[in-house]
């Protein structure tokens, strides 16, 4: 068995099961949205997916630490919301019984569900095995009817070893035109994964066991002017103006493709786009580890390089945030230094 084979299998099945729950909510009009202290939204889909993923991890790797985005505090006082989530969680299973049983079976009751959600409160750090979970990345995209991702990564002694991204609204076809909005029937969804040193792969998302996988790789980029770059839809999450200036400096003529969530990392990893730029809007914002761990590994294993705007690799060893990094540049390894140089020119001119 190759290294981290069990972790990879459980992570993929856990993300696949959680994706079923998020898809159910995606098609509902009422998504049970509440506002968090930082004013960002969280839905019944975020809470439910986090509970399901943590329950699978606790059943298989009880000693591991977990850093997850959401916490259950608001659910302890909001009975209606708690019950809606519980109804979703207890009725979401993989249709393949052996896959479902590999995830350890059902959560016992509502209280156990809250406990599961709160197991994601680890401080993170430089030692040991730590899972990072973003149950729905791109909640704003999820609410808008756009792209979102269910994200899970295993970090061991500060290094990402396993990364899995469920992208329920991406098309299965790698060559389909890349767009941030979901068409009439939506995409049918893709599950991306990587293990450090073992390459990156993708398979269609299913509602049962894992579908057959294929290897993915970034597009060879011989002519920078033909590159497509990806960026956030939200202008508050990355600096669209700076990014346009950088693209221009690089001679890129294609318009940027705007899509929410780590679907940007996944899309460039499979050659549906080429470069992902995330320039800071606010100097004080610290990126969260769950927003980058899986995507960073998947892109690197597909032939890319990922750094911050100063050229430093992303440092997952300093807690729940990427406190040592600012912004993100992900590009094919062969052109990353060129992109970094353009970013620095634009960035330094602003000072
Ligand atoms: N000021 C900010 N700068 C960068 N990212 C942010 C900022 N505020 C929130 N985010 C995070 O960006 C991620 C989405 O990125 P994108 O727009 O590229 O899809 C979310 O996880 C969101 O976190 P949160 O879940 O707390 O809202
Ligand atoms: Mg996120
Ligand atoms: Mg989230
Ligand atoms: Mg959020």
TrEMBL record:
- GO: which molecular function terms? 3'(2'),5'-bisphosphate nucleotidase activity; metal ion binding
Report which reactions are catalysed by this protein. adenosine 3',5'-bisphosphate + H2O = AMP + phosphate; adenosine 2',5'-bisphosphate + H2O = AMP + phosphate; 3'-phosphoadenylyl sulfate + H2O = adenosine 5'-phosphosulfate + phosphate
| Sorted UniProt keywords | Hydrolase, Magnesium, Metal-binding
What enzyme category does the UniProt record give? hydrolase
Which cofactors go with this protein? Mg(2+)
What is this protein's function per UniProt?
Converts adenosine 3'-phosphate 5'-phosphosulfate (PAPS) to adenosine 5'-phosphosulfate (APS) and 3'(2')-phosphoadenosine 5'-phosphate (PAP) to AMP.
* Family, per entry: Belongs to the inositol monophosphatase superfamily.
PANTHER family named among the record's database cross-references: 3'(2'),5'-BISPHOSPHATE NUCLEOTIDASE, PHOSPHATASE
Q: What is this protein called?
A: 3'(2'),5'-bisphosphate nucleotidase
């Amino acid at each position: 068995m190759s290294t981290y084979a069990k972790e990879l299998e459980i992570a993929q099945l856990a993300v696949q099961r959680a994706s079923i729950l998020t898809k159910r909510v995606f098609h509902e009009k009422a998504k049970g949205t509440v506002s968090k202290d930082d004013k960002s939204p969280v839905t019944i889909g975020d809470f439910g997916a986090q509970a399901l993923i943590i329950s699978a991890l606790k059943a298989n790797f009880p000693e591991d630490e977990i850093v997850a985005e959401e916490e259950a505090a608001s659910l302890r006082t909001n009975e209606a919301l708690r019950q809606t989530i519980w109804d979703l969680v207890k009725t979401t299973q993989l249709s393949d019984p052996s896959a479902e049983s590999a995830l350890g079976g059902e959560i016992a009751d509502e209280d156990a569900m809250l406990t599961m959600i709160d197991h994601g409160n680890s401080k993170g750090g430089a030692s040991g095995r730590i899972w990072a979970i973003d149950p729905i990345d791109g909640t704003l995209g999820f609410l808008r009817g756009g792209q979102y991702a269910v994200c899970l990564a295993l970090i061991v002694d500060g290094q990402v070893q396993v990364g899995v991204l469920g992208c329920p609204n991406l098309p299965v076809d790698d060559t389909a035109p890349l767009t941030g909005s979901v068409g009439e029937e939506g995409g049918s969804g893709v599950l991306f994964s990587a293990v450090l040193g073992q390459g990156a792969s993708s398979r269609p998302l299913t509602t049962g066991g894992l579908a057959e996988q294929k290897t993915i790789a970034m597009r060879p980029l011989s002519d920078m002017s033909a590159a497509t770059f990806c960026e956030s839809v939200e202008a508050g999450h990355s600096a669209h103006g700076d990014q346009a200036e950088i693209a221009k400096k690089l001679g890129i003529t294609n318009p940027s493709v705007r899509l929410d969530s780590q679907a940007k990392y996944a899309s460039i990893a499979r050659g549906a786009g080429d470069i992902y730029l995330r320039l800071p809007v606010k100097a004080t914002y610290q990126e969260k580890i769950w927003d980058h761990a899986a995507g960073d590994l998947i892109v690197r294993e597909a032939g890319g390089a990922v750094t911050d705007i100063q050229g430093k690799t992303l440092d997952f060893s300093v807690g729940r945030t990427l406190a040592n990094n600012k912004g993100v540049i992900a590009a094919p390894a062969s052109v990353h230094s060129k992109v970094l140089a353009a970013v620095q020119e634009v960035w330094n001119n602003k000072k």
